[in-house]
Design goal:
The structure is a homodimer.
Chain A lengths: L21 H16 L6 H8 L5 H6 L2 H22 L4 H14 L1 H7 L10 H25 L1 H19 L11 H12 L2
Chain B binds a DNA duplex through helix 2 and helix 3.
DNA sequence: ACGATATCTTGTCAACGACAAGATCTAGGA
DNA sequence: TCCTAGATCTTGTCGTTGACAAGATATCGT
């Protein structure tokens, strides 16, 4: 169960040894598998085969399937926080960035908001999630101060709802349009 | 052999024969299981055991796991359409009804918006979903006409987003409050 | 009453998740 | 350089699962 170790920053070189950076390879394979068939349409052994290792190799890095999802959620929240922080302090652009992240990282986004998949007590995950919420609150602070908490929750809800509807294929958007650009006029209805 | 199990409360009318209305019993058990541990935290055989039937009995009613999810999604869309239609033509109340349905039927709502779980080509499902979308468009028609399609998508997104955030446990609402009542002030920000 | 059909059971198989124990590789100190 | 400790991966195993096939039993139409 000792899966929540800080990431190895010295992975760049890798090579040589047994397989390489198996941890990263398995996580990438999991992202592909989730994109292709959801969180339940694949097996650990399948990821291992795709990576060319034995069926029990991934267990050393993640413990079990929950450990893999915990690692994915942690990475998701970490990158989410970075993207949100980079979006600047304009609330509309924050919303666009929110939706774009969800669409560009469907698998991570899906895992992030499905707590039954991962270990909520994991420290690394909790820290990453905190960072994401902080970035979100930071961007919405102006709205919260001027229009109250409900307005901030409304802004969060509209961005999150559009992202979920988009990713589930419920919306039928114009072709050749990014999720964020499709979301912009919708978000503007609230944030004019 | 089939009677060594405590009587199921769902069996009211039927009785007699092998088990009763097994289809309904399995679907109810599935809803409970999904509420308890998500769409992947249980097995068909577990539902069969809980219903007191053999491990292969459910297959006759649903074919496979995808068939069960298809049945659940169909029931979800059917009841969703009813609830939305009963909410009247006030858009705020429609939003409240949307959120309340999601919270009162977490399992159905979750399956409904996860297309990889069910068979999208199923005719019954398609009809039920059409009915739900019709009820939704009906309720938002006024907004669409006066404020455009983006405004309607915005209203859908805010209700859907609040529902998803609520159900995922991301929001931390005041205790002893229903999802719909918590959503009302948030929806009002858009629909004043 | 009786046969057709729907419903359920038993049996089976490959695949899976999880665990244990052994093999192999890497790193770092003697 | 050698050599040990630990990290990484493999092989082997077990109970469970989803799916299928074939047989048993109850219901229903005629």
């Amino acid at each position: 169960m000792a899966t929540s170790i800080p990431p190895e920053v010295d992975d760049i070189g890798k090579q040589g040894y047994h397989h390489g950076d198996l941890r990263r390879v398995i996580m990438n394979a999991a992202v592909e598998a989730i994109d292709a068939s959801g969180t339940g349409g694949w097996s650990m052994r399948e990821l291992a085969r795709r990576a060319g290792v034995s069926h029990a190799a991934p267990a050393h890095h993640f413990g079990d399937k929950e450990g893999l999802f915990t690692a994915l959620a942690t990475e998701g929240y970490t990158r989410f926080a970075e993207v949100l922080a980079a979006a600047g302090d304009d609330l509309l652009e924050l919303g666009v960035a929110y939706v774009d992240f969800a669409a560009d990282h469907r698998a991570l986004f899906e895992v992030m908001f499905r707590p039954e998949l991962f270990d909520e007590t994991d420290q690394c995950l909790a820290a990453a999630r905190q960072a994401a919420w902080r970035a979100l609150n930071e961007g919405a602070r102006g709205l919260t101060e001027t229009a109250g908490a409900s307005a901030s929750v409304a802004a969060w809800s509209i961005a999150h709802g559009f992202a979920e509807l988009w990713n589930s294929g419920t919306l039928t958007p114009p072709p050749d349009t990014t999720a964020g650009e499709s979301a912009r006029p919708v978000l503007k209805v609230l944030l004019r």
